[in-house]
């Protein structure tokens, strides 16, 4: 992994730094540092406008191929983008799910027709996406999904090749109440073994038969949702990677989520850690050797997360992440949960008291929300199994 910056890379840095300085003004400047997990409600409309402003000036989808609107940026320039974006304290992006999860998946597995239809809306932030994976009985065990999709024959020439009709329930669907589309893992062959017979479908959210119910969280926010499909429809052509090939495609999407995109996620982590350090100085908790040791370990741990993400980015043979991406999920989830606990210990007794009407401060919100980090997106237990079996080659856990 060579992170030596060339003259071209440094010119890219200078261009980006100058652009951020000139454009983070007005309402965009007022939204600096806002957003992120547990805080997605903050200045959402302004952050959408900011993402579209980035897109209009060519600062979205940097790693995508040029033929699909990206810059084909290498690892070094992607790292520079995240470094400068963090340094500018720019608003947390709202288009993460489309740009960094679905976009790379479509580029790797989609048909040319699908790429031409969906990639421009992701790049320009004119269509927002959510992820339809988890169900009440299929959280970390994604292959256990029960949402079904049946291919209906076309009733007229206007329907082309027909439509998929979906029925079932998804849960913990981030930003589903704001999304235009959802990529859904559904069972299309109920007679096949559970890891087979799944398909990866692109489903419009604004239609009859799709009901979204926000879930009230411990933080009093509702970025997660339940989604109910009742005879919801999508075109027959909106299947990615082929019918019944959904497991392979879904695993690739999770790899993108746990690999490259964590560099962007670490923008928020760095801000939070800096804030906890400042809080420790303010409360004098930093004078406690044990607290100082934990702060030091947190800083070193964040560097490890960054280096592991960079290793993942430089180690992709064909652009598709492998099971090693589970290492990133396991590492950042535990790091962030521990940071929430550290923040509460730095606060001391004051951290146990909320404001009027359960008004949480940022550290209480961090602690409460980070309790879920080791569960959503694949629990720690599942990630350890993946690493043991698919990375280390250890014997598989006995299946009943």
Automatic annotation (TrEMBL):
Gene3D superfamilies, alphabetized: Acyl-CoA dehydrogenase/oxidase, N-terminal domain, Butyryl-CoA Dehydrogenase, subunit A, domain 2, Butyryl-CoA Dehydrogenase, subunit A, domain 3
Acyl-CoA dehydrogenase/oxidase N-terminal domain: residues covered: 6-122
GO molecular function annotations of the record: flavin adenine dinucleotide binding; oxidoreductase activity, acting on the CH-CH group of donors
A Pfam family that the UniProt record links to this protein: Acyl-CoA_dh_1
Location of the Acyl-CoA oxidase/dehydrogenase middle domain: 130-231
Cofactor(s) listed: FAD
Domain of life, source organism: Bacteria
All residue ranges annotated as the Acyl-CoA dehydrogenase/oxidase C-terminal domain in the record: 245-392
Alphabetical UniProt keywords: FAD, Flavoprotein, Oxidoreductase
One Gene Ontology cellular component: plasma membrane
Flavoprotein among keywords: yes
Family: Belongs to the acyl-CoA dehydrogenase family.
Protein name, per record: Acyl-CoA dehydrogenase domain protein
């Amino acid at each position: 992994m060579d992170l030596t910056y060339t003259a071209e890379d440094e010119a890219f840095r200078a261009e980006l730094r100058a652009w951020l300085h000139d454009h983070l003004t007005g309402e965009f400047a007022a939204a600096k540092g806002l957003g992120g997990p547990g805080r997605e409600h903050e200045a959402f409309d302004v952050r959408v406008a900011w993402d579209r402003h980035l897109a209009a000036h060519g600062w979205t989808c940097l790693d995508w191929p040029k033929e699909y609107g990206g810059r084909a940026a290498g690892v070094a320039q992607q790292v520079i983008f995240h470094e400068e974006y963090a340094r500018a304290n720019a608003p947390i992006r709202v288009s993460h799910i489309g740009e960094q999860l679905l976009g790379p998946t479509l580029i790797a597995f989609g048909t040319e027709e699908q790429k031409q239809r969906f990639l421009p809306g992701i790049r320009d932030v004119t269509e927002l996406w959510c992820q339809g994976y988890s169900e009440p009985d299929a959280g970390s065990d994604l292959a256990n999904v029960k949402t079904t999709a049946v291919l209906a024959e076309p009733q007229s020439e206007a329907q082309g090749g027909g439509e998929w009709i979906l029925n079932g329930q998804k849960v913990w669907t981030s930003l589903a109440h704001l999304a235009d589309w959802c990529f859904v893992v559904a069972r299309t062959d109920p007679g096949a073994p559970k890891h087979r017979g799944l398909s990866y479908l692109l489903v419009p959210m604004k239609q009859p038969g799709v009901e979204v119910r926000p879930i009230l969280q411990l933080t009093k926010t509702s970025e997660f949702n339940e989604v109910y499909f009742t005879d919801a429809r999508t075109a027959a052509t909106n299947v990615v990677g082929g019918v019944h090939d959904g497991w392979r495609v879904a695993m690739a999407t999770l790899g993108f989520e746990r690999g490259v995109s964590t560099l962007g996620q670490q923008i928020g982590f760095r801000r939070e850690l800096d804030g906890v350090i400042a809080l420790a100085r303010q409360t004098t908790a930093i004078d406690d050797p044990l607290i100082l040791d934990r702060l030091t370990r947190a800083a070193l741990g964040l560097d490890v997360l960054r280096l592991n993400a960079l290793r993942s980015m430089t180690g992709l043979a064909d652009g598709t992440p492998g099971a090693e991406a589970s290492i990133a999920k396991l590492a950042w989830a535990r790091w962030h949960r521990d940071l929430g606990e550290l923040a509460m210990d730095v606060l001391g007794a004051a951290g146990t008291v909320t404001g009027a009407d359960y008004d949480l401060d940022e550290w209480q919100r961090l602690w409460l929300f980070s309790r879920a980090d080791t569960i959503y997106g694949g629990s720690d237990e599942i990630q350890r199994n993946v690493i043991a079996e698919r990375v280390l080659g250890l014997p598989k856990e006995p299946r009943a």
